[in-house]
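Mods, move this if it's the wrong board.
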Amino acid sequence: MKINTKLCMTIVTLVIVIAGVFAASTAPQASAAAGGFVTDEGRGTLGCPDGTNQPATITFSATDNGKAVSGTFSIK
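Not the wrong board. Structure tokens:
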């Protein structure tokens, strides 16, 4: 039985894309209802171009006015 490499690669690529879309759609997300406000922060590590890692905190806030979302963020 001959294996069609092109078909196998297409199937593998589709499985990876579907898994990525599923993971992104089920990830926890902060949300604000229309007219709402949300704020949060998180801590982690930033990878720098020189290969070092630095501790970091990201803080954000967002407001939904029903037509557009606006807000601020900072990384320290």
